Amino acid sequence: MIEIRDLTKRYGRTTAVDRLTLTVRPGHVTGFLGPNGAGKSTTLRLLLGLHRPTSGSTLIDGQRFAARRRGLRHVGALLDAGDVHGGRSARSHLRALAASNAIGRSRVDEVLGEVGLTGVAGRRIGGFSLGMKQRLGIAAALLGDPPTLLFDEPFNGLDPAGVRWVRELFRRLAAEGRTVLVSSHLMSEMEQTAQHLVVIGRGELIADESLAEFAARSVQTQVVVRTPDPAALTVAVREVGADVGTTPEGALMVTGLSPTALGDLAFTRGIPVHELITRSTSLEEAFMNLTADRVDYRAGEHR
Ligand SMILES: Nc1ncnc2c1ncn2[C@@H]1O[C@H](COP(=O)(O)OP(=O)(O)OP(=O)(O)O)[C@@H](O)[C@H]1O
């Protein structure tokens, strides 16, 4: 379990993480979402003790991570797949990590197999594609068979088969009872991966709920209706307190009425209806709406 309490990190005038409090529980994949610059990577670095918080605290399974010996046995992390010594082979890179964490050599070959890199284990990492480096980073995270796993943007550079594999891997790791926290700035990557969502914007917590709760709360359903008398239907819809707009194609778009209620309303007012379609906003749209006022990150601007 990860416990973050009132965590703040400032870099000069920039507040990267702002009084963040949350608990990440084992048993399901938690998606850590936020637009670019929201503070996701900073939070992960603070969890690993790579940066010092300005204030607040982080605990992993009840202890500060920096206080742990043989850290890879407690927490596995993929932060920056490119941050590896290019002159080493994948196998020697993992062997060095294993040795410094008192992990047996046989585990290196196990994790190489797990991530599909056995065939290239003797090749220099410098010649690896980004997707291969991501796989190597995941292998390093798995090396100590840790109960807690942190992944920062793990889908970068992976092909569709790789994305699918990673999703299944994360779900399996969580089902084994581990704590799995995965950051991304794309809801589309998370909606098929995570069962729980933590959303931040400008370092602040915006949402902390299950994917199902997020969807129920944020996804709006609208009814698109075509009628030869849009003026009359607009008046009728407003009279019952629902909202109505117009689509670019000239149909009416009604929010706040079910298709049944809208059809009945038109019928009782004698307004012909030619087409009635229910349309839901996507989770990606819901996420963008939720974070819209926390995205102020434009080139050349300071926060
Ligand atoms: N070492 C640092 N020095 C100064 N500012 C930093 C440092 N690290 C992060 N920041 C700033 O803190 C803010 C949060 O950055 P962070 O990388 O944590 O966001 P993020 O959510 O991971 O974004 P992305 O999705 O783009 O990776 C940004 O404004 C960033 O410029």
TrEMBL record:
It comes from the Bacteria. One of its GO terms (molecular function) is ATP binding. SUPFAM superfamilies: P-loop containing nucleoside triphosphate hydrolases (SSF52540). Residues 2-227 form the ABC transporter domain. Belongs to the ABC transporter superfamily. Coiled coil: none annotated. PANTHER family: ABC TRANSPORTER, ATP-BINDING PROTEIN. The keyword Transcription regulation does not apply. Keywords: ATP-binding, Nucleotide-binding, Transport. This is ATP-binding cassette domain-containing protein. The keyword ATP-binding applies. It comes from Micromonospora antibiotica.
